[in-house]
C-alpha cells in the first residue's frame, strides 16, 4: 500500500516537473520566435474551429437539397444551395491552408528554438570554470546535463501546443456532436 502512494507521488512530481519544463520552453519559444509562434498558434486554432463552420454549412446544404426535392420544379431556387456549397468549399480550402501554415510555422519554430537552446547550452557550458572539468563529480554533472539537453527541449513547446490543440479539438467535436447531430 505504501509503495503505491510513493509511486503516485513520484508520478505526480515527475508530471509537474515535465509540465513546468514544457511551460518554460513554451515561453522561450514565444520570446525566440514571437511572430512565427503566434501565427502557428492561430493557424492551429483555426484548423480546430473551422470544422464547426464547415459542418454547419454542410448541414445547410443537405437541408437545402431536401427542401428543393420537396418543392415543385418550377418553384425551385438554386441560389441558396449554390451559396452554401461555395461557402462550404471555401471553408474546406481555408482549413487546408491553415494546416499547411501550421506545419510550416511549427518547423520554423522548432528549428529556431532548437538553435537558441543549443546556443544557450553552449554559452553556459563554456562559462564553466576549468576546475569543474577536473572534478569528476562536476564532470559527471556536465555530462548528465548534456544528455538531458538532447531530449530536445523544443519538442516540449510543440507538445504543449498540441496538448492545447487536442483540448480545443475535443471541445470542437463535442460542439459538432451536440448541435449538428440529428
Automatic annotation (TrEMBL):
Primary localization class, coarse: membrane
Record keyword Transmembrane helix present: yes
Keyword flag DNA repair: no
Highest taxon in the source lineage: Bacteria
Entry's transmembrane regions: 37-57, 77-99, 160-180
Topology class, membrane: Multi-pass membrane protein
Subcellular localization: Cell membrane
MF terms (GO), sorted A to Z: ATP binding
Keywords carried by this UniProt record: Membrane, Transmembrane, Transmembrane helix
Coiled-coil ranges per UniProt: none
Cellular component GO terms held in the UniProt record: plasma membrane
Name under which the protein is recorded: Uncharacterized protein
Organism expressing this protein natively: Candidatus Dojkabacteria bacterium
Upper lineage: Bacteria, Candidatus Dojkabacteria
